[in-house]
Design brief:
The chain contains eleven helices and 13 strands. The protein is an alpha+beta fold. The protein has two domains: 115 residues, Aminopeptidase (3-Layer(aba) Sandwich), CATH 3.40.630.30; 161 residues, Gcn5-related N-acetyltransferase (GNAT) (Aminopeptidase), CATH 3.40.630. Strands 1, 2, 3, 4, 5, 6, 7, 8, 9, 10, 11, 12 and 13 form a 13-stranded mixed sheet that branches. Strand 2 and strand 3 form a beta hairpin.
């Protein structure tokens, strides 16, 4: 068994595909992290002969105050993907060696079988099994959900699916939403590089009313799964539920492409976003983050910081947010 550092993006992505490891594991994520936020990615594969038996993407995450190792930052999971115990433990051991006593955080999409812990991260992913096409999916939705999807359409709202040309509209809504939530926004450059690097594996979905953007999301594709890492809507138009049309558009797109799963992303159990995702028929699967204390609740410190950010004037928050966001791994 040997551990090899990979520098070949095509080879890495081929291995990711064989494991069905999800969109965050693609080389495109590493490209965006390194180009935009200057954190170093070290991507490892465990091999016997020429056969890849396991993989682990790691990022050396530097802040002004400390250095840590994360798999992976800015998303729900990275983790060790392996075919057997030996390759898993070799990769885990190599991660510990690279960390050299510094904090090591490995975000698993499910409970790892070969190490003690970690406990649940206090967050869950919401997944929906897709039935094969949008017509079947529409029929399995509850009547209340279908009527909520029709609501914005009755007011004339329409959905668009595109790429970089829709990014400015997405980003404007996203910035507004992040300020409301009390959290610094990613740089628009982060999304530009991400979309360019993912290519056909990424889409921007937009709902607009008479050319006014109301809701938008970014959708990533990986083998049999569509994942939505970012979705936002303008609260001024909450009454007509543009986010319902937004999610239906993404779900229908994924179903008609023959994908098996739709990943709504992480939520805190019982939260508003959790309930929103559950109404589509999604089921929960816990996230396990090794090296991070489990927390299903927002800490007092986080609450204070969020309230302070909400009170920060928007122009200042929009300018300062991307600078701070590079140091927040969540």
């Amino acid at each position: 068994m040997r551990i090899k550092k990979i520098e070949n993006p095509s080879f890495w992505d081929e291995v990711v595909e064989t494991f069905g490891a999800g969109p965050y594991l693609y080389w495109a994520w590493k490209t965006a992290i390194e180009k935009v936020y200057r954190h170093q990615g070290i991507y490892l594969i465990a091999q016997k002969g020429d056969e890849p038996l396991g993989l682990l993407p790691l990022v050396k995450f530097k802040t002004p105050f400390k250095t840590s190792w994360v798999s992976l930052p800015f998303c729900d999971y990275g983790g060790i993907w392996s075919k057997d115990k030996e390759s898993f433990l070799h990769l885990f051991s190599e991660a510990q060696r690279l960390a050299q006593g510094k904090p090591l955080e490995i975000r698993f999409s499910q409970k790892p079988p070969y190490i003690k812990g970690p406990e649940g991260a206090g967050k869950v992913r919401l997944l929906l099994e897709l039935p094969g096409n949008s017509e079947k999916l529409w029929k399995q939705l509850k009547s209340k959900v279908r009527s909520q999807v029709r609501r914005p359409q009755k007011d004339g709202a329409k959905a668009l699916v595109g790429g970089l040309e829709l990014l400015p509209a997405f980003y404007k809504i996203y910035q507004e939403n992040m300020h409301y939530l009390g959290s610094p926004a990613h740089s628009i450059q982060w999304f530009k590089v991400l979309l360019s690097s993912f290519g056909e594996r990424a889409r921007v979905v937009l709902v607009h009313l008479k050319q006014t953007p109301l809701a938008a999301a970014i959708l990533l594709f990986a083998r049999d799964t569509a994942t939505v890492p970012w979705a936002s809507s303008l609260r001024a138009y909450k009454k007509i539920s543009p986010n319902m049309l937004l999610y239906w558009t993404m779900l229908a797109l994924a179903a008609d492409q023959g994908l098996k799963y739709f990943d709504f992303g992480r939520s805190s159990p019982g939260s508003g976003t959790y309930r929103f995702k559950k109404q589509w028929g999604a089921y929960e699967t816990p996230l396990y983050w090794y090296g991070r204390s489990p927390s299903g609740k927002i800490s007092k410190k986080r609450e204070i910081l969020a309230k302070g950010w909400q009170k920060t004037p928007k122009p200042l928050a929009n300018w300062l947010g991307p600078f701070l966001r590079r140091y927040i791994s969540l």
